[in-house]
Write a structure and sequence with these properties.
Elements lengths: L1 H15 L8 H10 L5 H34 L10 E3 L8 E9 L2 E9 L20 H5 L25 E6 L18 E11 L2 E11 L6 H18 L6 E3 L3 E2 L2 E6 L5 H51 L4 H17 L6 H14 L4 H12 L2 H16 L4 H55 L1
Antiparallel strand pairs: 1-7, 2-3, 2-9, 4-5, 5-6, 8-9
Helix pairs in contact: 1-3, 2-6, 3-6, 6-7, 6-11, 7-8, 8-9, 9-10, 10-11
Length: 449
Amino acid sequence: MKKQMRRPAELLYAVLNRNGKLTSRQVRIDMEHLYPGQDQEKLRREFYIKKIEKTMLILLGGTVLAVFMAARSIRGQPLERENMLKRGDVLEEGQDVWLEGSYGDQKERFHVYVEPLQIKADDLAEWYEKFSDALPELIAGQNSSLQDVRSDLNLAEQYEGFPFHVEWKSYDTESITSSGEVKPDGQDKEVMLKAEISYGEQEWETVLWITVPAKEYSREEYRYQKTVTMLEEAEQNSREEEYWELPATVDEQKITWRNPTEKSWLVLLAVSWGVGVLIFFLSDRDLHQELEKQRECMKQEYPDIVHKLALYLGAGMTLQGAFQKIGSEYELQKKQGRERSPGYEQILYACRELKSGVSESSAYERFGRRTGLQEYIRLSTLMTQNLKKGSSSLLERLHEETEKALIQRIQSGRKLGEEAATKLLVPMVMMLGVVMVMVMLPAFISMGM
């Protein structure tokens, strides 16, 4: 797929980079420092083409996936038959299903639980007994009677003046819970409560019928609640059928059913485009961070470079000979498998400039400027001053520079160690918490036992 994106990326680069407007100044500087002596225009072109390729892949992938999700969710999972929702097989589990009903231009969403097909059963257990005469008054609480229950009932385990233990069970927990909480809805409800009364080994069952008046709803709330009730009734009355018919009208208004359209594809599309654009602009930042890592590496290499230069000068070599000796040794070691060293790469590039005819003084000055580091600029200044003034103290100054560089490297190492210790503090605290739990948990468990 990446190969197919190459040509479009090249064309897009050609369009965006008219008159060189696409390449930022910072990218030019970073490229020159990272890859001295190489074709900068070619490097910048390849960098931006790869960046465009990566961005286009993310945008295209996110767009295709979003379109696919949108196509599936435009109509949702269609109902196999009009106003009919298919049940699962007898051995399957029930399913939570979202439905969308359209009242003309208005749409409502409904959540129903579809039970699987059930084996036919003709026998229904019926067991009801009369409640004791005292219970209606005891459980009424602040309600005037059990035929007009608007506030919570007093469903307790024991009542004052009676030695019985009572356990309550509500047969419509959506209206009255087993703890006595009353939740009225859009229509009057007759709720059956069963009291299991026990005293010693003797047990009784008493049934009470509670009336919960309808809650006052707005027109929209009333229609919604009525639709919910009709859905529940339709589902219950068709549990032995493969399909169950959804209500066709509510209050003489036609309902058109379908699964609701999901909007997740829009989120995916927005996220993919956002990530693609973000990666495009952050690639320049990654390039600059790569340069910063290279400069940090060059700082670590600086003491070795100055030490070798002082060593060769002390052995009687000229400055140019010592400089080229360092570059040739690095080039030979690199052929033998040594990893790339940015500081030595700059020396090697300066040596090639000397061989191409650049003056020694200019090669040293350009060497310092390319690195962009004060240490190397200071070294290039010492070398150019030695050429111009013929200073005899160059070797002594290089020894001082070596000692100074070693001290700076030690300080840098200490700083990195302190930063590492700070970063390790959080995981250490987390591990301490785990150890404390492992140590204390058995003690708490033994105390509980």
